[in-house]
Prior knowledge:
- The structure holds two protein chains of two kinds.
- By secondary structure, chain A is an all-alpha fold.
- Chain A has one domain.
- Chain A contains 15 helices and two strands.
- In chain A, helix 3 packs across helix 12 and helix 10 (211-228) packs antiparallel against helix 12 (253-278).
- Chain A starts with 6 loop residues before the first helix and ends with a helix.
- Chain B has two domains: 7-44; 70-165, Alpha-Beta Plaits (2-Layer Sandwich).
- Helices cover 29% and strands 19% of the residues of chain B.
- In chain B, strands 3-4-6 form a three-stranded antiparallel beta sheet, with no helix packed on it.
- The longest helix of chain B is centred in the first third of the chain and has 41 residues, at 4-44.
- The chains are: A mainly alpha, B alpha+beta.
- The complex binds iron/sulfur cluster (2 copies).
- One iron/sulfur cluster binds at residues 83-89, 100, 135-136, 138, 140-141 of chain B.
Amino acid sequence: xxxxxxxxxxxxxxxxxxxxxxxxxxxxxxxxxxxxxxxxxxxxxxxxxxxxxxxxxxxxxxxxxxxxxxxxxxxxxxxxxxxxxxxxxxxxxxxxxxxxxxxxxxxxxxxxxxxxxxxxxxxxxxxxxxxxxxxxxxxxxxxxxxxxxxxxxxxxxxxxxxxxxxxxxxxxxxxxxxxxxxxxxxxxxxxxxxxxxxxxxxxxxxxxxxxxxxxxxxxxxxxxxxxxxxxxxxxxxxxxxxxxxxxxxxxxxxxxxxxxxxxxxxxxxxxxxxxxxxxxxxxxxxxxxxxxxxxxxxxxxxxxxxxxxxxxxxxxxxxxxxxxxxxxxxxxxxxxxxxxxxxxxxxxxxxxxxxxxxxxx
Amino acid sequence: xxxxxxxxxxxxxxxxxxxxxxxxxxxxxxxxxxxxxxxxxxxxxxxxxxxxxxxxxxxxxxxxxxxxxxxxxxxxxxxxxxxxxxxxxxxxxxxxxxxxxxxxxxxxxxxxxxxxxxxxxxxxxxxxxxxxxxxxxxxxxxxxxxxxxxxxxxxxxxxxxxxxxxxxxxxxx
Lengths: 361, 173
Ligand code: SF4
Ligand code: SF4
């Protein structure tokens, strides 16, 4: 394509240069270091951007102004927050299990990093094109609950423990309907690889091609994703009105910041996955035979498409958070086991029939 | 499950259950969409924002009509107020904020008439409950919207509401 330099070309140039300069082992090591630095950089940027976005979205939804003192219109507020968290003392309570207490936030952030690996950020720009990407993501994301349980248990605090137990019940149950709605797309695509799933949407995103069943799967996926990232209206693990701060009650300073960052990065990841599965990942928006329109859409870089879709979903999740009140634990489990799970099972049946009969475009 | 009829009975019940179930799902989705429409409206309509950037817009800020700052007694241009000294406000106040000090005026006809000497108001005790205003039979006191009440000495918070030298309006009994 005759457009400006793309992310995949940059990565190819770097790769070729490294291969010409070093032997294969060193090339691999250096590339891994570059990828690691990029991921950490992305985390930092995501943390800053998503926090200010959330604060502004929440403010406008609640008819407030939100942060408006630091920088133009308060846009540097999250940097000030970061500095505050950096200089704060990271306290470890006396009665806590010190090793597990300090390990838990690290696990949270490492899981978030692992989840970045198979995501296709742009055309041919992916850290690890693994052929079971979808399975990998759903498997690794459930490790997240271990860090929360660990934090709750090691804090030696009743609120933390209650929060952690709730979070366990919640993530274990919502994983099911998230999984089932992902499987709907896997059935339609016939592949578990993110790359192939994106390529299967070249003639239309699944949310348009898949009729109502995929729409239902999408809605269920978004609900389950909100629950899995422990965000309101499913933030029972934190529930500040009843459990002070749930599993991270005892955390302060940078250890708290890691949990905080992990939450936002996880939101980004589930939205990226949702965008990849249902909204065509980095695929531009095309309308059937409108050649001119399609070409204009092709000129927008694929990374912008991907980020745009992801941030649209993130906004949707934030919109949920500031609209709906928090559920009680029994309501939460009712919703999953009596509504989402049966509906997504039935929906899966419909999708399968659709895939067999070839009812999608 | 061994008998035929209960199974059909169950099936019929199950059918009703299914209809109710689908109804619940639809009404839930609908009510959620209503909520999201409202918040979406606020998100896109920034003119609805009610935040007052207080010290910055001190001159132009807008306080709600029912905001209660302190009790005052309005006087007209002839330095006359409407207070008869009936002490209804003092009795109505739940925490002894108001003290009415009365005196007796001699009317032109030579009769003695009760009037106020001072209406002492302890701002530091007032909870802005509005009960005194409601209790006053002659609308002599009202709530003002001033709110910057900080002072360095609490004795400054004890105020006399009637102006010095003021007297009661004609025609107020
Ligand atoms: S507003 Fe309430 S507390 Fe204040 S003076 Fe009147 S009755 Fe007393
Ligand atoms: S302010 Fe009203 S209630 Fe109080 S003494 Fe005067 S007339 Fe009576």
